[in-house]
Every structure is written in structure tokens, then in C-alpha cells.
Amino acid sequence: MHQEAQFRFLLLLLFLSTATSSADAAVSSTSGRAMSLPGCPDKCGDVSIPYPFGIGDRCAAAGLSRFFNLTCDGSRSPPVPMLGDPGAQADVIDFSPERGELRLYAGLSYACYASSATSPSTNATFAFSLVGTPFRVSPSRNRLTVVGCSALGLVVGTASGGGGDDDDLYATGCFTYCAELNAAGADGAPCAGAGCCQVPISPDIPYLGAAFRTGNWTNTAWRFNPCFYAMVAEDGWYSFRRRDLVGVLAYYNETVDAGRGVPVVIDWAVRDGWCPATAEERARRKYACVSGNSYCVNSSNGMGYTCNCSRGYEGNPYLAGDELKKATNNFSDDQVIGCGGHGTVYRGTLDDLREVAIKRSKAAVDGRGGGGCEDEFVNEIIVLSQINHRHVVRLLGCCLEVHVPMLVYEFVPNGTLFDLLQGGTAARRRPVSLGLRLKIAAQSAEALAYLHSSASRAILHGDVKSLNILLDGALDAKVADFGASVLRSAMGEGESFIEYVQGTLGYLDPESFVSRHLTDKSDVYSFGVVLAELATRRKAVYDDDDASCSGHGGQKRSLSTAFLAALRHGELWSVLDRELVRRPDDDGDGDDKAAVDVVRELAELAARCLGPSGDERPAMKEVAERLQVLRRRAEMRAVAGAGRDSNGGEVDRSWIMCGGGGGAVGRGHLDTNTTASYQSTETDKMPLTLSVNDLAR
């Protein structure tokens, strides 16, 4: 029985320049970085999707979407990108932008014998049909490999695939022979004819298939080697094993049926001619190198060309930088939604009405060159490419031109946690419930715990603050701004030395500032300041306009220092947000005990995070777990009689009342049998001794 499996597929590869600086090298060393259109999926499973590829017509290259459109098969785990027409699709392994190549899984040909007859009893032929597409099988990166003991394997091709009289025929092949199984090469031996052989293939053959040539000779090997195999496969992939000769279709079943097939390397080029020589020709032919900092390179595998970035630039030569300029109304000040030390963030709207956030280098705009800013942008790309978490902002694309580096993110519509807590005047600020504060805290801690222990490589954020926690349409948290982040092995070093301290005044870990060693506990300290912000609704560095307890009215104060001092002196009420816990003499019934307990434990958790030594601080995973417990308790609280405990007694507020002078010891009940004490010490040194039984319950 003769079966022919013709395989039609459509492939494309983004072709990027090699790096010319240390920052560029960092990007180039991680092929397939997020280079998709803004607002489009940049990954399918574990495979990055670079433009002009795209998942769906609108995300693929305009006018070429049939060739670049991918399907993401979500029925498999992890999902797998597929290209080609329905019913004849190929699984993509990866993209290699530096080489201008793409790898995919393909099939193989076989012929099986049940006797010494000259014709096989069963066979199948696998062929590549690339006629009319921009793709060719790479001649330098693939080989014809034939496996068997009496096999003449061929790779046969034609220029058009039609097979007519005027169609140029191409054929090459090799012969294998071994009189018995023990005469075949040893496992791992070169494919030189004893059990397997290999030959190169020629360039620019759009229709290519692997087959066998039968002759008049008697096949004496059929008893120990019933099946022969021929395949066009990536050079270096196949390693000979004697067991591949044994059994009926055993190797085929192991490779194709049980696995995913044979890896093949494909070249791509724009196939409408060589590089256009004039501007008129470029306009007429819809020139693909649309970036103003790119140039054309003629293909070495058939007529066509690819695009490369100009020297000193890195990015996607198939994308025009003007798109981001248009999306932001020429980077209008009206579109600014955030400013940082290294970049200005603009709100942008693309042609298809998708909204994005575009971070543009501040140093470049000011005419001071890219400098360290480009390094920061590259660092952010490297870090974000390791992360896939619902509470971390997603990077959609980038433009790392030396003069104006830009990053494109998903747009997160409700601003930052800082905006939520501090926006507007004190009298006009929107109410923020305890439940919402705990939700934002728990989600942010979950993201940071993921960075520290669950990402492919452990990540230290390095600049945790309320301005770097974004809020989406449902007021869910998304951690952002990874320019100061550090990658380290999750099982390797526990800390990273930093040449200069990055971060924000009021959030910096004093221990890391002195030692210049960034650890996961540095992030914990900064997050402790965020928890204090949530509990007090005060800035990390604030104007003290309430001298009722502190005696420091009108001064700039550190929230972390004031927060810890208030705990030690039994004066926590003096810094807490009155919306969470009212004065005991306010009008009304006062606070329900469940809410008071939750706020107290939130304050205690913040104090632990703000411990003077990293060894005294909890891990971020513990912080996240504790916040989830507090969040559930806040959601479920239903205490009858506001202002009274479950037994009808008054809620004890002595733990939040103003103390008399320095050194007072406040106390509070975690439950009916547990007492917490705070030992006062000198405020400036910030040590805090907690003696709490069952604090982490």
C-alpha cells in the first residue's frame, strides 16, 4: 500500500540585528523577546511570538497574514503554536531571530519489507510543499538522513512542485548497507553508511521530499531490519542507535506517533525580488523594512530579502517607530500618565482602538543620550520575559533604538495604589474599604512571592512602592517597573551586590543601603512600608500635620519610623487612617471587634516586615499567606453589635491609644488567651522587639 503525506505549511521569522553593546547583547542572548504588536499575545505556551508573526489575522503582518498567522492550540499543556492551513499544520519549536530561522516539527518517510522482495510491503513518503510561500528548507542547517541496512534513500525536489516536463528535477541521496545487525555502526557512530548515511541538500528547492529507490537486488536485511527511514532533519539532531533498525515501524512510532516529529530548520525571506534599489521601487513593492533604522539583506536561499537593524540599533526592523508616535499624539503632555526617574509613561491608542501604555526614555528626550537608561530598559525586558503572573504587568513590545528607547505595556486603567490612597485633597479622597486594601496587599504580595520563589529564575524587584502597584478595571493589583530588578538563580546566591543603590526615599531597606547587597528581604522591607501606607493612608515620607500624639507637627517624617515608634509607644491610633478605626469617643457605636483585630494584625505584620535586620523579617511567601488569611477574615466578619465583642463586651482599644511620654508599653489581645507586647527602644535605630504568642496563626 502506497501512502503519500504531503505537508503544506507557512512560516516566517523575525530577523533581528546582532548586538553591538553590552545592553544589546543582553537582549540578543535571549532569543524571541517580546516583539509582537502592542496589544497582541506575545507568547503561546513557552514559545515567544515575534511580529510579523501573530496569533490571529489582526496581529500578523498586514497584507501577509496568511503566511504569518499562527494558531495557538490551547488543548495541549502547555499550549503549542501551529502554522499552516487547517489540516496541514506544523508545531513550532522556537524562533531564532539572530539566525533568521525558525524550527518546527515535521514527519519522515519509511519503507517496510515482509520478505526479500524488491518492493516494500508498506511505505509512506513525507514531502515539504513550499511553492508560493516565502519559505525554504535551510540547506546549511539540515541534512538528508537515511537509516537502514540495505537502503538507497533520496531527497527529491522540483522548482514548482508540479512535476511537469518543464519542471527542473533535483535529486541526491546515499546508500546504507550492513549484512547483519552487529555489522552496523555502534551507537553514536557517524552516519557513514553502516546502518545510516547523511548528505547535504541544495538551496532554493520549494518542493522537497524524502523517498527510497528500489532496485533489482534482493533485500537480505529484512529479517533483522524490516523498515528503512529517510528524513530531512536538523543537522546534528539524529544520533544513530542499532535499535532504530529493529522492529516494524518501531523508530517511526517512537519519533512521530509517541513524540512530535523530526525538527527541521526553515529559512524565510520576502519573495518579491531582491532588495529594491530605489525609493520608487520600495514604494511600489511594499518594502518590508519599514523601520527608519533598518536595511535590506539579500537572501542566500532563493530570490528574496530580509531586514536587519542598522548598526547601533536593536529592535524589530519590520515595525515602524511612527506607530507609537501616532498612538500618543506625538507624545503629547496630555497623554502622560506617569513619570519616573528614567522614563515618562504615556497612554496610547493604536489604530485598532486598543489602549497601551508606552514608557519613553526621559534621558533621550532631554538630549542626554540613552546611557544607563537603555540599560534599565533592557534589564526590564530581560526580567519581564521570565514572568507570567496575573498580578504582574505584561510587557507587549519594545523599541530599543539607542536615542529613544521605548517599552510598550498593557494599559492598566485605574492608576496606581499611590493615586488611590493619596489622590485629591484629604477632604475629597474616595473611601477605601479595609477589604479593598487587603485585596490589593494580598495580590501584590502574591506577585512578589512568585518573583522570589516561583519564577524560572528568582527575581528581586528592587523598587517596591505604592507607585509601582497598578490597579486594573476591577481594582486588582499588578506589580510594575522592573528597571531596578535583579535576576538570580532560585537555588543559587541569596543576595546580589549592587554597584549603586536604586530605589525611592522612604522605601529603601537601611540594611541593603549600607551593605549594598540586595536580597529578597529588601523587597520585604519596602513592602512593609506599603502595608503601613495602606494602614495609615500616609505617604512614605509625609508632612506631620497631626501633633496630637507625636509632638512633631509640621515636620517631614519617615512613615516607617513613625509607624514603628507609634507601635512601641502604644500610640498606633495616632497614625492609623481614621476610616479604618475611629476614635473611641467619636459619634456612633465605634468599630466592630473583628475589624479592629484585622487592622491590628495588619499593623503587626507591617512591623515584622520593617524589622531592622533581614533575618528578622518574614519571607514574602509567608507575608502573602498571612494577608490572604486577613483578607478572608475581613470579608467574613459579621459581629453583632458594632463596637462590642462577640460576648457583648466593649472592644479594648488600649493598644491604639496615645501613651504618656516615651517608653510606654502598649498591649492588645490577639484572642482571649494571647497578649502582644511592644518593647520601646530608641526610635532612630528602629529596633522592635515583638513578644507575641501565636502571631502567625
UniProtKB/TrEMBL annotation:
Pfam families: GUB_WAK_bind (PF13947), Pkinase (PF00069). Keywords: ATP-binding, Disulfide bond, Glycoprotein, Kinase, Nucleotide-binding, Signal, Transferase. One of its GO terms (molecular function) is protein kinase activity. It is found in: Membrane. Residues 331-630 form the Protein kinase domain. GO terms for biological process: cell surface receptor signaling pathway. Residues 1-25 form the signal peptide. GO terms for cellular component: plasma membrane. This is Os03g0642600 protein. It comes from Oryza sativa subsp. japonica.
